[in-house]
Amino acid sequence: METVTGIKRENSEKLFETAKKYFPGGVNSPVRAFKSVEGAPLFMHKGNGAHVWDEDGNKFVDFCCSWGPLILGHNHPSVFNNVVETLKNGSSFGAPTVKENELAELILSRNPFIEKIRFVSSGTEAVMSALRLARGYTGRKKILKFEGCYHGHVDSMLVKAGSGLATLGTSTSAGVPEEYANETLVLPLNDLDALKACFEEFGNEIACAIIEPIPANNGLLLQDLTFLQALREICSEYRSLLFFDEVISGFRVAFSGAAEYYKIKPDIVTYGKIIGGGLPVGAYGASAEIMGYVAPDGPVYQAGTLSGNPVAMAAGIAQLTECAKPGFYEDQERRTKQFVSRVNQHASTKEYDFEMVTIGSVFWLSFDGKKRIQRADQIDPDMSQFSKLFTALLNRGIYIGPSGYEVGFISTAHTEEILEGAAQQFCDALDEIYA
Predict the structure, then answer these.
(1) How many structural domains does the chain have?
(2) Helices in 1-97 by DSSP H: which ranges?
(3) Catalytic residue numbers?
(4) What span, in angstroms and rounded, lies between the C-alpha atoms of 36 and 42?
(5) pTM: predicted TM-score of the whole model, two decimal places
(6) Chain segment 93-119, per-residue pLDDT in tens
Protein backbone atom coordinates (compact mmCIF):
# COMPACT_ATOMS: atom_id res chain seq x y z
CA MET A 1 0.00 0.00 0.00
CA GLU A 2 1.38 3.39 -1.04
CA THR A 3 2.27 5.95 1.60
CA VAL A 4 0.06 9.02 1.39
CA THR A 5 1.29 12.26 2.91
CA GLY A 6 -0.92 14.98 4.34
CA ILE A 7 -2.39 17.80 2.27
CA LYS A 8 -1.25 21.40 2.52
CA ARG A 9 -3.29 23.45 4.98
CA GLU A 10 -1.17 26.54 5.61
CA ASN A 11 -3.57 29.01 4.00
CA SER A 12 -6.67 27.42 5.51
CA GLU A 13 -5.03 27.44 8.94
CA LYS A 14 -4.19 31.14 8.66
CA LEU A 15 -7.68 31.98 7.42
CA PHE A 16 -9.23 29.99 10.26
CA GLU A 17 -7.20 31.86 12.87
CA THR A 18 -8.44 35.12 11.38
CA ALA A 19 -12.02 33.85 11.19
CA LYS A 20 -12.00 33.01 14.90
CA LYS A 21 -11.68 36.74 15.57
CA TYR A 22 -14.92 37.40 13.71
CA PHE A 23 -17.22 34.39 14.16
CA PRO A 24 -18.18 32.05 17.03
CA GLY A 25 -15.85 29.08 16.64
CA GLY A 26 -14.48 30.68 13.49
CA VAL A 27 -17.44 29.53 11.38
CA ASN A 28 -20.96 30.51 10.37
CA SER A 29 -22.39 27.01 10.79
CA PRO A 30 -21.17 24.58 13.51
CA VAL A 31 -20.24 21.42 11.58
CA ARG A 32 -17.86 23.41 9.40
CA ALA A 33 -15.54 23.82 12.38
CA PHE A 34 -14.08 20.29 11.94
CA LYS A 35 -14.65 19.61 15.64
CA SER A 36 -15.12 15.86 15.07
CA VAL A 37 -12.17 15.46 12.69
CA GLU A 38 -8.53 16.55 12.72
CA GLY A 39 -7.04 19.87 11.71
CA ALA A 40 -8.37 23.25 10.67
CA PRO A 41 -11.39 23.41 8.36
CA LEU A 42 -10.62 23.75 4.68
CA PHE A 43 -11.47 27.12 3.17
CA MET A 44 -12.85 26.48 -0.30
CA HIS A 45 -11.79 28.59 -3.25
CA LYS A 46 -13.75 27.26 -6.22
CA GLY A 47 -15.79 24.35 -7.52
CA ASN A 48 -16.34 22.95 -10.98
CA GLY A 49 -18.22 19.81 -11.92
CA ALA A 50 -17.52 17.11 -9.34
CA HIS A 51 -14.43 18.86 -7.93
CA VAL A 52 -13.55 21.58 -5.44
CA TRP A 53 -10.28 23.40 -4.80
CA ASP A 54 -9.31 24.88 -1.44
CA GLU A 55 -7.24 27.98 -0.68
CA ASP A 56 -4.07 25.87 -0.59
CA GLY A 57 -4.64 24.62 -4.13
CA ASN A 58 -5.67 21.10 -3.09
CA LYS A 59 -8.14 19.47 -5.50
CA PHE A 60 -10.84 17.09 -4.23
CA VAL A 61 -13.65 14.99 -5.60
CA ASP A 62 -16.55 16.57 -3.74
CA PHE A 63 -19.13 14.28 -2.12
CA CYS A 64 -20.46 17.02 0.17
CA CYS A 65 -21.98 19.00 -2.72
CA SER A 66 -22.73 21.93 -0.39
CA TRP A 67 -24.62 19.45 1.83
CA GLY A 68 -26.86 18.31 -1.01
CA PRO A 69 -28.17 21.11 -3.24
CA LEU A 70 -25.61 20.69 -6.03
CA ILE A 71 -27.25 17.70 -7.68
CA LEU A 72 -25.82 18.87 -11.03
CA GLY A 73 -22.38 19.52 -9.56
CA HIS A 74 -20.56 22.82 -9.24
CA ASN A 75 -20.90 25.61 -11.79
CA HIS A 76 -23.33 23.76 -14.07
CA PRO A 77 -23.61 25.74 -17.34
CA SER A 78 -27.42 25.97 -17.33
CA VAL A 79 -27.53 27.21 -13.74
CA PHE A 80 -24.63 29.60 -14.25
CA ASN A 81 -26.06 31.13 -17.43
CA ASN A 82 -29.57 31.51 -16.02
CA VAL A 83 -28.23 33.21 -12.88
CA VAL A 84 -26.01 35.62 -14.85
CA GLU A 85 -28.78 36.58 -17.28
CA THR A 86 -31.20 37.21 -14.43
CA LEU A 87 -28.65 39.19 -12.42
CA LYS A 88 -28.24 41.61 -15.33
CA ASN A 89 -31.76 42.84 -14.60
CA GLY A 90 -31.24 43.21 -10.85
CA SER A 91 -30.65 41.05 -7.80
CA SER A 92 -33.68 41.82 -5.64
CA PHE A 93 -36.89 43.83 -5.81
CA GLY A 94 -39.02 42.84 -2.83
CA ALA A 95 -41.82 42.58 -5.39
CA PRO A 96 -43.23 39.76 -7.54
CA THR A 97 -41.27 38.59 -10.58
CA VAL A 98 -42.09 36.14 -13.35
CA LYS A 99 -39.35 33.80 -12.09
CA GLU A 100 -41.49 32.90 -9.06
CA ASN A 101 -44.33 31.84 -11.33
CA GLU A 102 -42.02 29.82 -13.53
CA LEU A 103 -40.43 27.85 -10.68
CA ALA A 104 -43.80 27.27 -9.00
CA GLU A 105 -45.26 25.96 -12.28
CA LEU A 106 -42.26 23.69 -12.79
CA ILE A 107 -42.73 22.17 -9.33
CA LEU A 108 -46.51 22.06 -8.96
CA SER A 109 -47.22 20.70 -12.45
CA ARG A 110 -45.15 17.62 -11.61
CA ASN A 111 -46.06 17.20 -7.94
CA PRO A 112 -49.36 15.46 -7.13
CA PHE A 113 -49.04 16.04 -3.38
CA ILE A 114 -49.32 19.83 -3.12
CA GLU A 115 -51.47 22.45 -4.84
CA LYS A 116 -49.90 25.70 -3.65
CA ILE A 117 -46.42 26.64 -2.48
CA ARG A 118 -44.72 29.53 -0.67
CA PHE A 119 -41.05 30.29 -1.29
CA VAL A 120 -38.80 31.34 1.61
CA SER A 121 -35.04 31.68 2.04
CA SER A 122 -33.98 28.52 3.91
CA GLY A 123 -35.10 25.09 5.04
CA THR A 124 -35.29 26.28 8.64
CA GLU A 125 -37.57 29.15 7.63
CA ALA A 126 -39.75 26.75 5.65
CA VAL A 127 -40.15 24.42 8.65
CA MET A 128 -40.81 27.30 11.05
CA SER A 129 -43.51 28.70 8.77
CA ALA A 130 -45.10 25.33 8.08
CA LEU A 131 -45.30 24.48 11.80
CA ARG A 132 -47.11 27.77 12.41
CA LEU A 133 -49.45 26.90 9.55
CA ALA A 134 -50.16 23.45 11.01
CA ARG A 135 -51.09 24.99 14.35
CA GLY A 136 -53.13 27.73 12.73
CA TYR A 137 -55.04 25.32 10.52
CA THR A 138 -55.79 22.71 13.21
CA GLY A 139 -56.15 25.01 16.22
CA ARG A 140 -53.89 22.64 18.16
CA LYS A 141 -50.58 23.32 19.96
CA LYS A 142 -48.52 20.15 20.20
CA ILE A 143 -46.02 18.97 17.60
CA LEU A 144 -44.79 15.38 17.34
CA LYS A 145 -41.26 14.84 16.08
CA PHE A 146 -38.92 11.88 15.97
CA GLU A 147 -35.53 11.55 17.60
CA GLY A 148 -32.76 11.62 15.05
CA CYS A 149 -34.65 13.84 12.60
CA TYR A 150 -33.34 17.36 12.13
CA HIS A 151 -35.67 20.17 11.09
CA GLY A 152 -33.42 23.20 11.20
CA HIS A 153 -32.73 25.44 14.17
CA VAL A 154 -36.37 26.27 14.99
CA ASP A 155 -36.69 26.56 18.78
CA SER A 156 -39.38 23.90 19.18
CA MET A 157 -37.44 21.48 16.96
CA LEU A 158 -34.16 21.64 18.87
CA VAL A 159 -35.25 18.79 21.11
CA LYS A 160 -33.15 15.67 20.75
CA ALA A 161 -32.26 16.81 17.26
CA GLY A 162 -29.52 15.54 14.96
CA SER A 163 -26.78 16.78 12.64
CA GLY A 164 -24.55 19.46 14.19
CA LEU A 165 -26.04 18.98 17.63
CA ALA A 166 -25.31 15.26 17.66
CA THR A 167 -21.80 15.96 16.42
CA LEU A 168 -21.22 18.29 19.37
CA GLY A 169 -22.51 15.64 21.78
CA THR A 170 -25.66 17.37 23.03
CA SER A 171 -29.34 16.67 22.54
CA THR A 172 -30.81 20.18 22.83
CA SER A 173 -29.80 23.82 22.71
CA ALA A 174 -29.40 26.51 25.34
CA GLY A 175 -31.76 29.42 24.84
CA VAL A 176 -34.82 27.31 24.09
CA PRO A 177 -37.49 27.96 26.77
CA GLU A 178 -38.96 24.93 28.50
CA GLU A 179 -42.39 26.13 27.43
CA TYR A 180 -41.43 25.62 23.77
CA ALA A 181 -39.93 22.22 24.41
CA ASN A 182 -42.99 21.10 26.39
CA GLU A 183 -45.18 21.53 23.31
CA THR A 184 -42.94 19.16 21.36
CA LEU A 185 -43.43 15.42 21.78
CA VAL A 186 -40.44 13.27 20.81
CA LEU A 187 -40.61 9.59 19.84
CA PRO A 188 -38.03 7.09 18.64
CA LEU A 189 -38.13 6.30 14.95
CA ASN A 190 -39.62 3.06 13.65
CA ASP A 191 -41.42 2.29 16.92
CA LEU A 192 -45.07 1.63 16.06
CA ASP A 193 -46.13 0.80 19.62
CA ALA A 194 -44.75 4.08 20.95
CA LEU A 195 -46.45 5.94 18.10
CA LYS A 196 -49.83 4.42 18.87
CA ALA A 197 -49.48 5.06 22.61
CA CYS A 198 -48.54 8.70 21.98
CA PHE A 199 -51.60 9.35 19.85
CA GLU A 200 -53.87 7.55 22.30
CA GLU A 201 -52.76 10.00 24.99
CA PHE A 202 -52.23 13.22 23.04
CA GLY A 203 -53.86 12.65 19.63
CA ASN A 204 -56.49 15.36 19.97
CA GLU A 205 -53.79 17.92 20.87
CA ILE A 206 -51.32 17.14 18.08
CA ALA A 207 -51.35 19.67 15.25
CA CYS A 208 -48.92 17.68 13.13
CA ALA A 209 -46.39 14.89 13.12
CA ILE A 210 -43.19 16.11 11.46
CA ILE A 211 -40.69 13.60 10.13
CA GLU A 212 -37.87 13.33 7.64
CA PRO A 213 -39.36 10.43 5.64
CA ILE A 214 -35.74 9.65 4.77
CA PRO A 215 -33.87 10.77 7.91
CA ALA A 216 -30.49 11.96 6.65
CA ASN A 217 -29.14 14.40 9.25
CA ASN A 218 -28.14 11.90 11.92
CA GLY A 219 -26.97 9.02 9.82
CA LEU A 220 -29.10 7.61 7.01
CA LEU A 221 -31.90 6.07 9.10
CA LEU A 222 -33.98 4.24 6.51
CA GLN A 223 -37.42 3.48 7.89
CA ASP A 224 -39.67 0.51 7.26
CA LEU A 225 -42.33 1.44 4.72
CA THR A 226 -44.95 -0.03 7.06
CA PHE A 227 -43.99 2.50 9.76
CA LEU A 228 -44.41 5.46 7.42
CA GLN A 229 -47.70 4.06 6.15
CA ALA A 230 -48.95 3.58 9.72
CA LEU A 231 -47.95 7.16 10.55
CA ARG A 232 -50.07 8.33 7.62
CA GLU A 233 -53.07 6.29 8.80
CA ILE A 234 -52.80 7.40 12.42
CA CYS A 235 -52.51 11.08 11.48
CA SER A 236 -55.63 10.74 9.35
CA GLU A 237 -57.48 8.98 12.18
CA TYR A 238 -56.74 11.75 14.69
CA ARG A 239 -56.99 14.58 12.13
CA SER A 240 -53.40 15.58 12.75
CA LEU A 241 -51.43 16.76 9.73
CA LEU A 242 -48.65 14.57 8.38
CA PHE A 243 -45.67 16.84 7.77
CA PHE A 244 -42.87 15.53 5.52
CA ASP A 245 -39.67 17.55 5.92
CA GLU A 246 -38.10 16.93 2.52
CA VAL A 247 -35.41 19.58 2.65
CA ILE A 248 -32.86 16.86 1.84
CA SER A 249 -34.94 14.11 0.20
CA GLY A 250 -37.04 16.43 -1.96
CA PHE A 251 -35.85 16.35 -5.59
CA ARG A 252 -32.99 14.09 -4.46
CA VAL A 253 -34.53 10.58 -4.48
CA ALA A 254 -37.31 11.52 -6.91
CA PHE A 255 -38.65 14.76 -8.34
CA SER A 256 -41.44 14.83 -5.75
CA GLY A 257 -39.16 13.43 -3.07
CA ALA A 258 -39.79 10.62 -0.62
CA ALA A 259 -43.53 11.14 -0.96
CA GLU A 260 -43.23 9.96 -4.57
CA TYR A 261 -40.58 7.35 -3.75
CA TYR A 262 -42.75 5.73 -1.05
CA LYS A 263 -46.13 6.69 -2.59
CA ILE A 264 -47.36 8.34 0.63
CA LYS A 265 -49.25 11.64 0.56
CA PRO A 266 -48.24 14.16 3.24
CA ASP A 267 -50.50 17.04 4.27
CA ILE A 268 -47.66 19.56 4.46
CA VAL A 269 -44.22 19.33 2.91
CA THR A 270 -41.07 21.45 3.09
CA TYR A 271 -38.32 21.67 0.50
CA GLY A 272 -34.91 23.31 0.32
CA LYS A 273 -31.40 22.56 -0.90
CA ILE A 274 -31.93 21.54 -4.52
CA ILE A 275 -34.66 24.03 -5.46
CA GLY A 276 -32.15 26.85 -5.06
CA GLY A 277 -29.51 25.40 -7.35
CA GLY A 278 -26.88 26.36 -4.77
CA LEU A 279 -28.51 29.62 -3.68
CA PRO A 280 -30.49 30.10 -0.43
CA VAL A 281 -34.07 28.90 -1.03
CA GLY A 282 -36.68 26.97 0.89
CA ALA A 283 -40.38 26.32 0.37
CA TYR A 284 -43.43 24.85 2.02
CA GLY A 285 -46.53 23.56 0.31
CA ALA A 286 -49.85 21.84 0.93
CA SER A 287 -53.35 21.62 -0.45
CA ALA A 288 -55.07 24.81 -1.58
CA GLU A 289 -57.32 24.55 1.48
CA ILE A 290 -54.46 24.44 3.99
CA MET A 291 -52.39 27.06 2.15
CA GLY A 292 -55.47 29.26 2.18
CA TYR A 293 -54.70 29.93 5.83
CA VAL A 294 -51.43 31.71 4.91
CA ALA A 295 -51.40 35.52 4.76
CA PRO A 296 -52.62 37.47 2.88
CA ASP A 297 -55.40 34.94 2.21
CA GLY A 298 -55.63 33.75 5.81
CA PRO A 299 -54.69 34.50 9.41
CA VAL A 300 -51.31 32.68 9.58
CA TYR A 301 -48.67 35.37 9.09
CA GLN A 302 -45.41 34.77 7.26
CA ALA A 303 -43.33 37.15 5.18
CA GLY A 304 -39.83 37.61 3.80
CA THR A 305 -38.09 40.40 1.90
CA LEU A 306 -35.95 37.94 -0.04
CA SER A 307 -38.64 35.28 -0.49
CA GLY A 308 -38.83 34.37 -4.17
CA ASN A 309 -35.58 36.20 -4.91
CA PRO A 310 -35.28 36.26 -8.73
CA VAL A 311 -31.65 35.13 -8.86
CA ALA A 312 -32.38 32.14 -6.59
CA MET A 313 -35.51 31.37 -8.61
CA ALA A 314 -33.46 31.42 -11.81
CA ALA A 315 -30.98 28.93 -10.37
CA GLY A 316 -33.82 26.68 -9.26
CA ILE A 317 -35.55 26.81 -12.64
CA ALA A 318 -32.38 25.80 -14.44
CA GLN A 319 -31.60 22.98 -12.04
CA LEU A 320 -35.08 21.50 -11.74
CA THR A 321 -35.50 21.60 -15.53
CA GLU A 322 -32.58 19.15 -15.68
CA CYS A 323 -33.99 17.07 -12.83
CA ALA A 324 -37.33 16.76 -14.63
CA LYS A 325 -35.81 15.10 -17.70
CA PRO A 326 -36.74 11.42 -18.26
CA GLY A 327 -34.39 8.93 -16.62
CA PHE A 328 -32.63 11.53 -14.46
CA TYR A 329 -33.22 9.81 -11.12
CA GLU A 330 -32.79 6.30 -12.46
CA ASP A 331 -29.34 7.20 -13.77
CA GLN A 332 -28.40 8.90 -10.51
CA GLU A 333 -29.38 5.83 -8.51
CA ARG A 334 -27.64 3.44 -10.91
CA ARG A 335 -24.26 5.22 -10.70
CA THR A 336 -24.57 5.61 -6.93
CA LYS A 337 -25.26 1.89 -6.46
CA GLN A 338 -22.27 0.97 -8.61
CA PHE A 339 -20.01 3.20 -6.53
CA VAL A 340 -21.36 2.00 -3.19
CA SER A 341 -21.32 -1.68 -4.22
CA ARG A 342 -17.66 -1.47 -5.22
CA VAL A 343 -16.66 -0.11 -1.81
CA ASN A 344 -18.97 -2.44 0.13
CA GLN A 345 -17.66 -5.50 -1.69
CA HIS A 346 -14.10 -4.55 -0.77
CA ALA A 347 -15.04 -3.96 2.88
CA SER A 348 -16.93 -7.26 3.03
CA THR A 349 -14.04 -9.20 1.49
CA LYS A 350 -11.62 -7.70 4.00
CA GLU A 351 -14.16 -8.24 6.85
CA TYR A 352 -14.09 -4.60 7.91
CA ASP A 353 -16.82 -3.33 10.26
CA PHE A 354 -17.90 -0.87 7.62
CA GLU A 355 -20.74 -0.48 5.17
CA MET A 356 -22.08 2.25 2.93
CA VAL A 357 -25.84 2.68 3.28
CA THR A 358 -27.59 4.24 0.30
CA ILE A 359 -30.88 5.41 -1.18
CA GLY A 360 -31.25 7.34 -4.42
CA SER A 361 -28.05 9.35 -4.82
CA VAL A 362 -27.43 9.66 -1.07
CA PHE A 363 -24.98 7.52 0.92
CA TRP A 364 -23.80 7.24 4.52
CA LEU A 365 -20.71 5.68 6.08
CA SER A 366 -21.65 3.22 8.81
CA PHE A 367 -19.00 1.69 11.07
CA ASP A 368 -21.38 -0.85 12.58
CA GLY A 369 -20.78 -3.58 10.03
CA LYS A 370 -23.97 -5.05 8.56
CA LYS A 371 -26.12 -3.88 11.48
CA ARG A 372 -29.20 -2.06 10.20
CA ILE A 373 -29.38 1.39 11.74
CA GLN A 374 -32.91 2.82 11.93
CA ARG A 375 -32.71 4.98 15.05
CA ALA A 376 -30.23 7.55 16.26
CA ASP A 377 -29.48 5.65 19.49
CA GLN A 378 -28.29 2.64 17.46
CA ILE A 379 -25.29 4.57 16.10
CA ASP A 380 -21.99 3.96 17.88
CA PRO A 381 -21.06 7.40 19.28
CA ASP A 382 -17.35 6.57 18.94
CA MET A 383 -16.50 8.43 15.75
CA SER A 384 -12.75 7.80 15.90
CA GLN A 385 -12.82 5.50 12.87
CA PHE A 386 -14.72 8.09 10.87
CA SER A 387 -12.17 10.73 11.80
CA LYS A 388 -9.35 8.50 10.59
CA LEU A 389 -11.19 7.72 7.35
CA PHE A 390 -11.97 11.39 6.76
CA THR A 391 -8.27 12.27 6.99
CA ALA A 392 -7.21 9.32 4.85
CA LEU A 393 -9.72 10.37 2.19
CA LEU A 394 -8.64 14.02 2.26
CA ASN A 395 -5.05 12.91 1.71
CA ARG A 396 -6.27 11.00 -1.36
CA GLY A 397 -8.21 13.90 -2.84
CA ILE A 398 -11.70 12.96 -1.59
CA TYR A 399 -13.86 15.46 0.31
CA ILE A 400 -16.86 14.39 2.38
CA GLY A 401 -18.79 16.23 5.09
CA PRO A 402 -16.65 16.54 8.26
CA SER A 403 -19.02 14.59 10.52
CA GLY A 404 -19.77 10.90 10.84
CA TYR A 405 -23.45 11.69 11.26
CA GLU A 406 -23.72 13.42 7.88
CA VAL A 407 -24.51 11.83 4.53
CA GLY A 408 -22.73 12.13 1.20
CA PHE A 409 -24.20 13.10 -2.16
CA ILE A 410 -23.57 12.21 -5.78
CA SER A 411 -24.27 14.62 -8.61
CA THR A 412 -24.62 14.23 -12.36
CA ALA A 413 -21.06 15.59 -12.60
CA HIS A 414 -19.78 12.44 -10.85
CA THR A 415 -19.20 10.41 -13.98
CA GLU A 416 -18.67 6.66 -13.90
CA GLU A 417 -14.94 7.29 -14.44
CA ILE A 418 -14.75 9.71 -11.50
CA LEU A 419 -16.73 7.35 -9.29
CA GLU A 420 -14.56 4.40 -10.22
CA GLY A 421 -11.45 6.31 -9.22
CA ALA A 422 -13.08 7.56 -6.02
CA ALA A 423 -14.19 4.05 -5.09
CA GLN A 424 -10.59 2.88 -5.35
CA GLN A 425 -9.50 5.73 -3.08
CA PHE A 426 -12.18 4.73 -0.55
CA CYS A 427 -10.93 1.14 -0.63
CA ASP A 428 -7.30 2.24 -0.15
CA ALA A 429 -8.31 4.55 2.71
CA LEU A 430 -10.19 1.73 4.42
CA ASP A 431 -7.14 -0.50 4.07
CA GLU A 432 -5.08 2.21 5.75
CA ILE A 433 -7.31 2.75 8.77
CA TYR A 434 -7.98 -0.96 9.32
CA ALA A 435 -4.36 -1.99 8.81
Answers:
(1) 2
(2) 10-22, 77-87
(3) 150, 245, 273
(4) 14
(5) 0.93
(6) 999 999 999 999 999 999 999 999 999
